[in-house]
Design brief:
47% of the residues lie in helices and 11% in strands. With 383 residues, it is mainly alpha-helical. Among the domains are: 115 residues, Tyrosine recombinase, N-terminal domain (DNA polymerase, domain 1, Orthogonal Bundle); 151 residues, Intergrase catalytic core (hpI Integrase, Chain A), CATH 1.10.443. The protein has a three-stranded antiparallel β-sheet with strand order 1-2-3, covered by helices on one side. A hairpin with a 5-residue loop joins strand 1 and strand 2. Helix 1 packs across helix 2, helix 2 packs antiparallel against helix 3 and helix 11 packs antiparallel against helix 12. Keywords: DNA recombination, DNA-binding.
């Protein structure tokens, strides 16, 4: 066998490397020390295609080999680590398990539909089975894998083409009015300022939670009164990673109102005194830090569990992302109050929120224009 397990429980690759042109003896390529069979098979697949060019149209294409091509493509394209990590999870938990014995060259539309049905029965970490939304994410990744197979001339078609996404339950948008946010903001204790500041940033800027957690003082200009959104933070395997923002348009500058700038100036001085023993470069501190440890997603999740218990009746705790909606809803109401046109409001929101397309902004927030449908109806008075 090409891939074998050794006595030390490590894996070994032994590949025929053709024949010596002078002696006629067979040459072999051997490599040991792989921690898993999957790692060894991935190395074998890479060696065969890049060194030996041994893949022919008759050979079986394993899911391990196809995934190695996806990884190679991601590396060439410079895809974000967060995307790559998510794909690795999709592959490890679902794709590699279901297609472990499959010939990816001959997988059919029927096979893909059966895979989708299998996914719908898989358990979810939240309880029950995978949601349609989660299944759709898995199918998008599988579609990408077969696209890579087609681009490498390993298949002539993508069996995922033509499959429609499963219907997803529409989530009603939640957001705080200014009055509700002020009530929410008043419930923080003095020792919880780092969380209070985080939610003020979310409300006053409309940034995504990952973008907020990546903010250091190097991104904040308190003289010109703006923050530069250039990075996003995410948490994987008990570790924080800082990556690039979601899209090119997400790289943006957001201006701040005066009272919030003054608050940040005051807090920056307090934070510098608080943490001066731990850093020589206070500008590198995350803006919420009250200790040498930065604020992370799990910290926030744990805090929300405690905080939810003190909410008064009638005020529910909205999701972190809903503070972004709250920001947008407030700006829309202000724009309407000031007589600004819908096109101008949407364009301004698109830029401030970092949407890649104005269609995204319209699709998400058009229902916040309460008089729009009434205007359409009254147009028939002049019919």
């Amino acid at each position: 066998m090409t891939v074998t397990r050794q006595k030390n429980k490590k894996w070994r690759v032994d590949i025929s490397d053709g024949y010596d042109t002078v002696t006629g003896s067979q040459r072999r390529h051997r490599k040991t020390g792989f921690k898993s069979r999957e790692e060894a098979e991935r190395y074998e697949a890479d060696y065969r295609i890049n060194r030996l060019h041994q893949i022919s149209h008759k050979d079986k294409i394993s899911v391990v080999y196809l995934y190695s091509l996806v990884q190679e493509e991601d590396e060439l394209r410079g895809n974000k680590k967060g995307t790559i990590d998510s794909q690795e999870s999709y592959y490890r938990v679902y794709v590699s398990q279901y297609f472990k014995n499959a010939n990816m060259r001959t997988v059919s539309v029927t096979d893909v539909k059966e895979y989708r049905n299998w996914l719908k029965k898989q358990p979810s970490v939240k309880g029950g089975t995978l949601s349609n939304s989660h299944v759709n994410q898995q199918m998008i990744f599988l579609h990408k894998m077969f696209d890579v197979a087609v681009s490498n001339q390993l298949r002539q078609d993508n069996p995922c083409d033509g499959l429609r996404c499963l219907p997803q339950r529409h989530k009603e948008m939640s957001y705080y009015t200014p009055e509700q946010f002020k009530l929410f903001d008043s419930l923080f204790e003095k020792s919880e300022y780092q969380f209070q500041l985080l939610y003020r940033v979310l409300m006053y800027t409309g940034v995504r939670i990952g973008e907020a957690l990546a903010l250091t003082w190097e991104n904040v200009n308190l003289i010109e009164k703006y923050v530069d959104i250039k990075h996003t933070a995410y948490y994987r395997n008990c570790q924080v990673y800082i990556g690039t923002v979601k899209t090119t348009q997400s790289n943006r500058r957001i201006y701040l109102h005066d009272s919030f700038v003054n608050e940040l100036k005051s807090w920056k001085e307090k934070q510098r005194d608080l943490l001066k023993e731990f850093t020589d470069n206070p500008n590198s501190l995350q803006i919420y830090q009250t200790s040498p440890e930065i604020l992370t997603g799990p910290n926030i999740s744990n805090f929300r569990v405690r905080f939810k218990k003190r909410l008064p009746k009638g005020l529910k705790l909205i999701r972190n992302h809903d503070f972004r909606h709250s920001h947008a809803a407030f700006l829309i109401s202000q724009g309407l109050r000031n007589g600004e046109g819908k096109d101008y409001i949407f364009y301004t929101l698109m830029k401030r929120l970092g949407h890649s397309s104005i269609n995204t902004t319209i699709n998400v927030y058009s229902h916040l224009f309460p008089t729009q449908q009434k205007e359409i109806a009254t147009a028939f008075d002049n019919f």
